[in-house]
Design brief:
Length: 157
Amino acid sequence: MTSEQPTAPRATPHVGGADDDLEKRLDDELTAFNTAAADGARTEPLTVRVTDEAGTLIGGLTGWTWATLACVDMLWVHEDRRHDGWGSRLMRAAEEEAARRGCTDITVSTYTFQAPGFYPKLGYRERGRIEGVPGGHEDVYFHKRLAPGTTGKVLGA
């Protein structure tokens, strides 16, 4: 008895730089897969922006929520305003919105040359580090439990 395997069509990987079409296709495919695996939960963008009276950007935050999980992707405050409390206010606003959306957990990562001392002051607990960041740095991962429908309060910090 002979078992023949069907021959797969020939394929060649192509390596390059930015590829908007590929990025969109992968996002669409993974979103569909993840939505199915999470009982229909869809990822929703989350942004917080702070501007002054003139409309100049002071700082901002981008991230997403997905069912009970929120994640902060980027947090930035203009260098001249970094010690005015805007980072904390941006994070609190994101936590409040995440909790309003039903999130119970929020995550964020930062490099050791950025702000690893900032997040514990807001109730985040370090959950892991990955070495190998250029310059001998590490990527530090943080997590915080939220009480849904509250104002970003910590549960069991």
